Amino acid sequence: MAAVAIPRRERAIEARTTTDRPLLRDFLERDRLFSAYAICDLEDREFARTRWGVAFAGGEVVAIGMEYSGLTPQPLFVAGRTDGVDAVLRDVLRPRAAYVAARVESLPAVEAHYRVDPGPQMVRMWVDRTTFQPFPADVSRLQAAESGELNRLYQLGFASWLPSSAVSEGVYYGIRVDGRLIAAAGTHVVSPRARLGVVGNVLTHVDYRGRGYATAVTSAVTAELLQTCDQVVLNVRADNPPALQAYRRLGFAEFVRFEERLVHRLGTPWSQIAAPLRRLLTFRKENRLR
User: Fold this and answer.
1) Cα 146–148–153 angle (5° rounding)?
2) Is 280 helix (H, G, I), strand (E, B) or coil?
3) pLDDT in tens, the chain (290 residues)
4) SS (HEC) of 57-111
5) Adjacent-strand bridge partners of 191
6) How far apart are CA 138 and CA 136, in angstroms?
7) Residue ranges of domains in the chain
8) CATH class name, domain 13-116
9) Within 10 A of 1 (CB to CB), how many other CB atoms are there?
10) Domain 13-116 matches domain 126-256 at the CATH topology level
11) Closest by alpha carbon to 18, among 96, 84, 88, 70?
12) I need a labelling partner for 208 at 20 to 30 A (CA). Which of 59, 125, 184, 288 fits?
């Protein structure tokens, strides 16, 4: 791979770890809708699972990176100036493999340290109370005791078991046909302090798609979140026009197109095993509304 040129600035860049949540929040709020996941991860329940790197130039924060603990590949978020992102990935955050979320302009900094798998762009969409258009339907709020049934539905398109605590602590709605759960949507993360919510885990059983069920459960989750949140966001693949159109019917608008890719640290064995990992983990942070 040819070397990727990273723009250099006159002032030296210093990157280091931090647990200073006010500092992190101040920077992330500058790009609130794109940084929504990371802002929600500042909440107590999530923050212990994260590790943050911050790049400074002349005492000013110019870039941020965050990796979320768990099985490799873990989520990795970067934002800010390209040379700052480069410094964070060079000196602070160095996972062997990760699912990176980055604006298009940050990709050269990622490519300086990682081999980036191909894939479609993601679309960050958002809605608030003034633009939300509810989709009335017969839906039900799901409880922790129903997590097993919810996982059986998700295993048709997802590869990870959702703990019952995620259902009890989040917001999940479903639709049943003849007593069987055939569609569901829920939350990835929510920040009461920032008044932000992230919708995800939207899935309809293949035998029931095209009937508006996914739109209905997404509407129910969004409606409940907007009782306490100022904005609700979600991700959808740019190559999924039906999902984009369905979300637009609910009042969601496109905010930005960005990259969410599986990456492998250059010079490590992980860069040689992309295909099996990609097949196993393509579900992460992605909505499949059909």
Assistant:
1) 100
2) helix
3) 445 556 555 459 999 999 999 999 999 999 999 999 999 999 999 999 999 999 999 999 999 999 999 767 899 999 999 999 999 999 999 999 999 999 999 999 999 999 999 999 999 999 999 999 999 999 999 999 999 999 999 885 455 678 888 899 999 999 999 999 999 999 999 999 999 999 999 999 999 999 999 999 999 999 999 999 999 999 999 999 999 999 999 999 999 999 999 999 998 654 455 545 554 454 444 444 44
4) ECCEEEEEEEEECCCCCEEEEEEECHHHHHHHHHHCCCCCEEEEEEEHHHHHHHH
5) 196
6) 7
7) 13-116, 126-256
8) alpha beta
9) 9
10) yes
11) 88
12) 125
Q: Looking up tokens 């609700």, which residue turns up?
A: 232
Q: Distances in Å between the alpha carbon of 18 and those of 40, 66, 190, 272? A: 17, 10, 22, 32
Report whether 35 contacts 189 (CB < 8 A). no
Kindly give, in sequence order, each residue whose CB lies less than 8 Å from that of residue 212, ignoring residues fewer than 6 positions away. 135, 137, 246
* 24 SS3 class: helix
First to last CA, the chain: 38
Residue-level pLDDT at 126: 98
The C-alpha atoms of residue 68 and residue 50 are separated, in whole angstroms, by 5
Residues 6 or more apart whose Cβ sits within 8 Å of residue 36 = 124, 196, 198, 231, 233
Q: Is the dihedral of CA 26, 27, 28, 29 positive or negative?
A: positive
> What single DSSP character describes residue 206?
G
Cα dist. 73→57, 214, 257, 262, 263 in Å?
A: 30, 28, 22, 8, 8
Contacts of 277 (CB under 8 A, 6+ apart): 73, 97, 262
12 φ, ψ to 5°?
-65, 145
